[in-house]
C-alpha cells in the first residue's frame, strides 16, 4: 500500500468526472430517443450529486489542507500532531455518508431491472434487495454516526479519552463492508436466470449478459474496499497513530466504488449513442424474447384456443407470444406478434430479406 495526497486528489477527480460523464451520456441517450426519464434515471442523478457532496468534496479538502493520504505530521520530539477540527468533521462525513451514494446506485440498478423484466418472482427479488439495501444504508449510517458519543467531544478528542464512549469501530466497518459485497453479488445475480433462458443466438445472448455483468466492476471495488478495511483495522488494533496514511485507502475506495456503481448503472442506457439503436427497442426485444420463452416452454392456463386463431387473423402473424398472467386487478392480456423473418443475422440484427413487424394487442378475456 502506498499513496500520496496528490494521487488521491487525482483519483477523486478522474472517477468523479467519469461518473458525471456517464450520467450525462445516459441523459443524452434518453433525450435522443425521446424516452421519458424513469425512476432509475432519477436515482442515478441523486447518486452522483450525493457522491460529489459527501465523498469527493470532503476528500479533496482534507487532502489539500490536512495532509490526508500522507504520513502523519509529527512534533520535533516525534509525537504525532493531533488532527484539526476540520479534519475530524470531514472524516466523519466521509465515514457516515459514504453509504448513501452507493445505496442510491444499487437502488437505481434494481429499478432498472424492475422496468425491463416482468414476473412475480423477479419483482419480489427486486423489492427484497431494495429493502435490504435501504436497511444496510440506514443501519450503518446511524451506527457510524453514533460510533463515539457525545459526537461533539468525539470530534475533538481521540477514541478512549475520558468522557468519550465508543463502540468497536473495527467490527462495525468490517460488517458494513462485508454486507456491501454480499448485496453486490445478489444484485448481479438477479437478471441472470431470465437472460439465460432467452431463445436467441448465443452471440446475442452473450451481448445481453455483458450489459448486466457490468456490475462486476462495482463488486471488484467493494471487495478491494473490504480488504483495505481489514488492513486498517489491524493497524488500529495495533495502536498505529499514522491514521492519515493507512485509513486513506478505505476512504478513496469508497469513493471509487460509488463512482463505478454509477457508471455500471448508466452503461446499459448509453447504447443508443454508440449503436444508433434505442435502448427501449433493446428492452422491448428482451421483453418479447422473455414472453416468447415462457409461452413455448409451458402453456398458460389462461389461454383460450379461439384467441390464438383470432390473433393470427388480426395480426397476420404465424408466431406470437402472450404474457402468462393478466395485468394485476384486470382481466386484460397483452399479446405481441411477429410477422416476417424469424431468424435474423448481421451485426445489427437486421433481416436480409423482408421486414420484421411487431404487433401488440391488448384484449379482455
Automatic annotation (TrEMBL):
The chain crosses the membrane at residues 6-25, 45-69, 89-113, 120-146, 172-196, 208-231, 251-270. It is a multi-pass membrane protein. GO terms for cellular component: membrane. Its main location: membrane. It comes from the Eukaryota. It is found in: Membrane. Residues 25-275 form the Rhodopsin domain. Keywords: Membrane, Transmembrane, Transmembrane helix. Belongs to the SAT4 family. This is Rhodopsin domain-containing protein.
Amino acid at each position: 500500500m502506498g499513496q500520496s495526497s496528490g494521487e488521491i486528489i487525482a483519483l477523486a477527480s478522474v472517477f468523479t468526472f467519469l461518473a458525471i460523464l456517464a450520467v450525462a451520456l445516459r441523459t443524452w441517450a434518453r433525450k435522443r430517443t425521446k424516452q421519458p426519464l424513469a425512476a432509475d434515471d432519477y436515482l442515478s442523478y441523486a447518486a452522483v450529486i450525493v457522491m460529489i457532496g459527501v465523498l469527493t468534496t470532503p476528500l479533496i479538502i482534507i487532502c489539500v489542507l490536512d495532509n490526508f493520504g500522507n504520513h502523519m505530521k509529527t512534533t520535533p520530539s516525534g509525537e504525532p500532531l493531533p488532527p484539526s477540527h476540520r479534519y475530524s468533521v470531514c472524516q466523519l462525513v466521509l465515514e457516515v455518508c459514504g453509504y448513501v451514494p452507493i445505496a442510491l446506485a444499487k437502488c437505481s440498478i434494481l429499478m432498472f431491472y424492475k422496468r425491463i423484466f416482468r414476473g412475480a418472482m423477479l419483482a419480489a427479488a427486486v423489492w427484497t434487495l431494495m429493502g435490504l439495501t435501504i436497511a444496510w444504508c440506514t443501519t450503518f449510517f446511524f451506527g457510524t454516526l453514533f460510533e463515539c458519543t457525545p459526537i461533539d467531544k468525539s470530534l475533538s478528542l481521540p477514541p478512549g479519552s475520558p468522557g468519550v464512549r465508543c463502540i468497536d469501530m473495527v467490527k462495525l466497518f468490517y460488517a458494513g463492508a462485508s454486507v456491501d459485497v454480499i448485496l453486490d453479488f445478489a444484485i448481479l445475480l438477479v437478471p441472470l436466470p431470465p437472460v439465460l433462458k432467452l431463445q436467441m443466438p448465443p452471440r446475442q445472448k452473450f451481448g445481453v449478459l455483458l450489459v448486466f455483468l457490468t456490475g462486476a466492476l462495482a463488486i471488484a471495488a467493494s471487495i478491494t474496499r473490504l480488504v483495505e478495511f481489514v488492513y486498517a483495522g489491524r493497524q488500529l488494533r495495533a495502536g498505529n497513530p499514522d491514521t492519515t496514511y493507512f485509513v486513506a485507502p478505505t476512504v478513496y475506495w469508497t469513493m471509487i466504488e460509488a463512482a463505478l456503481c454509477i457508471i455500471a448503472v448508466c452503461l446499459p442506457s448509453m447504447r443508443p449513442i454508440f449503436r444508433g439503436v434505442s435502448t427501449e427497442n433493446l428492452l422491448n426485444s428482451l421483453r418479447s424474447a422473455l414472453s416468447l420463452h415462457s409461452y413455448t416452454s409451458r402453456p398458460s392456463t389462461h389461454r383460450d384456443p379461439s384467441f390464438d386463431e383470432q390473433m393470427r387473423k388480426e395480426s397476420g402473424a404465424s408466431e406470437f407470444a402472450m404474457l402468462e398472467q393478466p395485468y394485476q386487478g384486470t382481466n386484460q392480456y397483452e399479446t405481441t406478434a411477429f410477422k416476417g423473418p424469424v431468424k435474423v443475422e448481421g451485426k445489427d440484427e437486421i433481416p436480409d430479406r423482408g421486414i420484421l413487424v411487431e404487433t401488440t394487442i391488448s384484449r379482455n378475456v
